[in-house]
Amino acid sequence: KNEVEQSPQNLTAQEGEFITINCSYSVGISALHWLQQHPGGGIVSLFMLSSGKKKHGRLIATINIQEKHSSLHITASHPRDSAVYICAVIPGNLIFGKGTKLSVKP
Amino acid sequence: NAGVTQTPKFQVLKTGQSMTLQCAQDMNHNSMYWYRQDPGMGLRLIYYSASEGTTDKGEVPNGYNVSRLNKREFSLRLESAAPSQTSVYFCASSGSSYNSPLHFGNGTRLTVT
User: Fold this and answer.
1) Of B42, B99, B106, the CB nearest to A99
2) How far is the C-alpha of B35 from the C-alpha of A49, rounded, in Å?
3) Kind of pairing between the strands at B64-68 and B74-78
4) Which residue among B33, B45, B103 sits closest to A45, beta carbon to beta carbon?
5) Cross-strand bridge partners of residue A37
6) Which residue of B58, B98, B104 is in closest CB contact with A43?
7) Bridge partners, A36 (sequence order)
8) How many CB atoms sit inside 10 A of residue A9's CB?
9) How far away is chain A from the Cα of B101, in angstroms, using its nearest Cα?
10) Looking at the complex, does the CB of residue B100 fall below 8 Å from at least one CB of chain A?
11) Is the pLDDT assigned to residue A65 strictly greater than 80?
């Protein structure tokens, strides 16, 4: 069972491109996290949201609770954005997606 | 400003050996978690502790035990390591509210031969 689906699994972009990563889930949730896992393995929390939209620098996260869908957007992408982006939902304990591996080429 | 400190970073064990992974946080968080991350799979919850003195099983608890020693520390023990436990292990912590952000340790890469 895949309660959290992310797309695409892999994404290659040129520096400067606008990037969208999608997360769909099948369970009722109270909140959703977007996480970033660096090539070295460390995991950082980017956003936590339960409705609407949040923005931090070049990153924007949106969620549509009715449609059970969230998107993470990166504007003006840069090679340092290369990482695995993970969506996780909270129906109780966190359920994680498998991640989207982003590579931004200079 | 340490956040979540996890040790060791790397470990190689032989089948049947035991070890304890240590985790400590300095953010006064009530909730702490142990996850494992395997290729092609999302992070999976092994055990969690919602508060000092309580622990609960997650999705994949078999072969592991945990101790919430105090509010700061949450350790994970492998009593008799198996090759299937080769993985990257992450400790995390968060505040009590469901909308509290997660803070992760840097991970432990464990290989069981």
Assistant:
1) B42
2) 22
3) antiparallel
4) B103
5) A43, A84
6) B104
7) A44, A85
8) 12
9) 6
10) yes
11) yes
Determine the residue of chain A that is closest to B108 in CA distance.
A41
Distance from CA of A87 to the nearest CA of B (A): 9
Token pair belonging to B14: 């032989």
Please identify among residues 6-45 of chain B the ones whose CB lies closer than 8 Å to any CB of chain A. 33, 40-45
Residue by residue, what is the 3-state secondary structure of B62-97? CCEEEEECCCCEEEEEECCCCHHHCEEEEEEEECCC
Residue in this structure with the two tokens 């606008």, named with its chain if needed: A18
Give chain B's mean pLDDT.
Answer: 93
Is-cis flag, bond preceding A8, omega within 30? yes
User: Is B112's pLDDT higher than 70?
Assistant: yes
Closest CA in chain B for residue A97: B42
Beta strand ranges found along A1-106 (DSSP E): 4-7, 10-14, 19-25, 31-37, 43-49, 52-56, 59-64, 69-74, 83-90, 95-96, 100-105
Q: Work out the percent of chain A whose per-residue pLDDT is above 70.
A: 98
pLDDT, one tens digit per residue, over A3-37 is 899 999 999 999 999 999 999 999 888 889 999 99
